[in-house]
Amino acid sequence: MAWLKGQVALVTGGTGGIGSAIVRRYVAEGARVAVMGRDAAQLAALADTLGDAVITIEGDVSRYQDNQRAVAATLEAFGRLDTFVGNAAVFDYFTRLDRIAPEEFEGAFQKLFATNVQGYLLGAQASIEALRETRGSMIFTLSNSAFYAGGGGILYVTAKHALVGMIRQLAYELAPDIRVNGVAPGATNTPMKSLEGLNSRSVPLNQIPGFEAGAAQAVPLQRIAEPEDHTGHYVLLASRENSGLTTANIIHSDGGWEIRSAGAAKPRKA
């Protein structure tokens, strides 16, 4: 424990699922954490639970002013910033391109990319100066959909693929002062919401009938992840002592998706 003692992090989308798990793990590892989210009630509940180790900022990641305000609040409260974690995202409920009405496409595209791509870039832009002062790092939440088809619909998968290039380019532009890495979780038991109005059948990810069993059967390790299963990777990448020479790297945390068999998972031996 205490891999992050004395460090300060800013986590976007930090009120539920993987985001809140990262916040809790960072606090357990000795960090102080600023949490940015849109749900005031969830932010308040997190602050009540974790106390003085966290501050909360209500804001929209797609607006530069809100990201700038979050960084300023972090510096005011804790005096420094060591790690920016871009985590906020919305899903598209597996919606195919031919199921999106042409007249609705532009609006849906802009809304999803505003959160899933623009939000990461604006958060990075707002935190660069503070991270240069500490020679800190950026960590972004991707997905197995950043590398493989089928983990979402056309908008979500395209956005996640774009983030692979974003990480590599930012690592190139910001070296040697700031390390830039990512974590690519697979299917996770999380209440991730889909873009409003895109698909009338959409429900939070972990409420999809059969989601847990189907996700477990699709990978060699044969279980769905809990949000906490991914958090060690975020700790490792934030730690200067243990990842000081790691940049432009994306850690896969997906149960072995790349080596999955085509079809049903192989039965376990007795």
Automatic annotation (TrEMBL):
EC number(s)?
1.3.1.87
Q: Which organism is it from?
A: Pseudomonas veronii
Q: Which gene encodes it?
A: hcaB
Q: Which domain of life is it from?
A: Bacteria
SUPFAM superfamilies in the cross-refs? NAD(P)-binding Rossmann-fold domains
One GO MF term on file is: 2,3-dihydroxy-2,3-dihydro-phenylpropionate dehydrogenase activity
The protein here is known as: 3-(Cis-5,6-dihydroxycyclohexa-1, 3-dien-1-yl)propanoate dehydrogenase
Q: What class of enzyme is it?
A: oxidoreductase
The UniProt similarity line reads: Belongs to the short-chain dehydrogenases/reductases (SDR) family.
Q: Which Pfam families match?
A: adh_short
Q: What is the lineage of its organism?
A: Bacteria, Pseudomonadati, Pseudomonadota, Gammaproteobacteria, Pseudomonadales
Cite the entry's keywords alphabetically: Oxidoreductase
Q: Does the keyword Oxidoreductase apply?
A: yes
Give the PANTHER family listed for this entry.
BENZIL REDUCTASE (PTHR43008), CHAIN DEHYDROGENASE, PUTATIVE (AFU_ORTHOLOGUE AFUA_4G08710)-RELATED (PTHR43008:SF4)
Keyword Oxidoreductase annotated: yes
